[in-house]
TrEMBL record:
Protein's UniProt keywords contain DNA repair: no
Residues covered by the Histone deacetylase domain: 31-327
Coiled coil: none
Protein name: Acetoin utilization protein AcuC
Origin: domain of life: Bacteria
UniProt-listed GO biological process terms: acetoin catabolic process; epigenetic regulation of gene expression
Keywords recorded for this protein, A-Z: Acetoin catabolism
């Protein structure tokens, strides 16, 4: 175990959701949503000493009850998941169960409901004050809809956590989704609820599943401006991604004034991810998580619930990105030049080098230049990222009394 030296930040009461039973969420050999990514994240967090930091507690989730799940899912859908879970040989394709993306497997209901239970546990810890920060890196199943599965997601744990916070007396929740894929399920569940601001920064639906998430998707008639989408061109790198993030997210969070932030940190935006077309680094993902944590400190008395999400480079990317998330949430960020602990690298080499054909990274960062151009220096109509950002700002900013050109 390696305790990180020289960290002077103030530790924050933080609940980290983890239990090896969470790896039962397993669609089978060859499926991109490999359960090893959770196990490797937890092991790296342990090797870095993150789970033993002052203020950090590790909690095992319960399996969410049907009553819990029906806070955002229809009873008919929960019953369908149970049926397919008991008999995977009889899929329910109408509800997305037994498809190529979401293959049926024995125990699907319990495994999915356990991940959901993790985000409900995180919400409960924030509501009862036992934690101000909570991380469920096994969660973030943001494509799951109220009545069907989609995109590797069975139950929408992020939506369940948001609903639990609202039911617990929280007046406004900001949901920030930085997965490479549009957070369509969470957006649609709260489409007409003015208490929830959903912001999704993702690769354009013109080039990536689920084909949604454009600037003109702004919420239902009772909640115009509650859905915010930044659909970035394929190939966008750190500079453009961070420019877009900083040109939209802080301004709207400041205008909305949430009491809690819930965020989804799918790390499939990374340049090495096999399913997407963005060019982001672990360093850039860490920067975005840092800003979200700072927004929670500024507007929400530090109350911040974060989840994992997508991420399909299970060795080089996912464990590092989510360990940075845990460390930032706990108030003890890991420097990018920190060596990856040798015990973890040796474990990866022994167990995964043959099956995954990759060696473990040596540093916790990608050693890149994170310079990005502030929106204040001007809008370039010839730049695809700037056009995307301006489309979003023009749709949303006036609804909050903000000037899309200058604020």
């Amino acid at each position: 175990m390696t305790f990180l030296p020289g960290l002077a930040e103030t530790p924050l009461p933080t609940t980290v959701v983890w239990d090896p039973a969470m790896t039962a969420y397993n669609f089978g050999h060859g499926h991109p949503m490999a359960p090893e990514r959770m196990e490797l994240t937890a092991r790296l967090a342990g090797s870095l000493g993150l789970l033993d930091l002052a203020g950090v507690s590790v909690a095992a989730p319960d399996v969410a009850t049907d009553e819990d799940l029906c806070a955002v899912h229809t009873p008919e859908y929960v019953a369908a998941v149970r049926r397919v879970s008991d008999d995977p040989g009889i899929p329910d394709l109408v509800r997305g169960l037994g498809t190529e993306d979401d293959p049926a497997f024995a125990g699907m209901h319990e495994a999915s409901a356990r991940l959901a239970g993790g985000s409900l546990l995180a919400a409960a810890a924030i509501l009862d004050g036992s934690a101000v920060r909570a991380v469920n890196f096994g969660g973030g199943m943001h494509h799951a809809a109220a009545d069907h599965a989609s995109g590797f997601c069975i139950y929408n744990d992020s939506a369940l956590a948001i609903q639990r916070l609202l039911d617990g007396g929280v007046a406004r929740v900001a949901y920030i989704d930085i997965d490479a894929h549009h957070g369509d399920g969470t957006q649609n569940i709260f489409w007409d609820d003015p208490r929830v601001l959903t912001i999704s920064l993702h690769e354009s639906g013109m080039t990536l599943f689920p084909g949604t998430g454009f600037a003109n998707e702004i919420g239902g008639p009772n909640a115009l401006g509650s859905a915010v989408n930044v659909a970035l061109p394929a190939g966008t790198g750190d500079a453009g991604w961070l420019r877009a993030f900083h040109a939209v997210v802080p301004q709207l969070v400041g205008a909305f004034l949430p009491e809690v932030i819930v965020s989804q940190h799918g790390c499939d935006s990374h340049r090495l991810d096999p399913l997407t077309h963005l060019n982001i680094s672990v360093d850039g993902q860490r920067e975005a998580a840092t800003v979200i944590g700072n927004l929670a400190a500024r507007y929400c008395d530090n109350r911040w619930l974060s989840t994992g999400g997508g991420g399909y480079n299970v060795i080089s990317v996912v464990p590092r990105s989510w360990c940075h998330l845990i460390a930032i949430a706990a108030g003890r960020p890991v420097p990018l030049r920190t060596p990856v602990p040798e015990e973890w690298r040796a474990y990866v080499h022994e167990k995964y080098s043959v099956t995954h054909g990759a060696e473990a990274p040596r540093l916790m960062g990608d050693d890149v230049d994170l310079w990005w151009r502030s929106w204040e220096v001007g809008f370039d109509p010839n730049d695809g990222v700037d056009r995307t950002v301006m489309a979003t700002r023009k749709e949303i900013f006036p609804l909050y009394g903000l000037d899309p050109w200058f604020d």
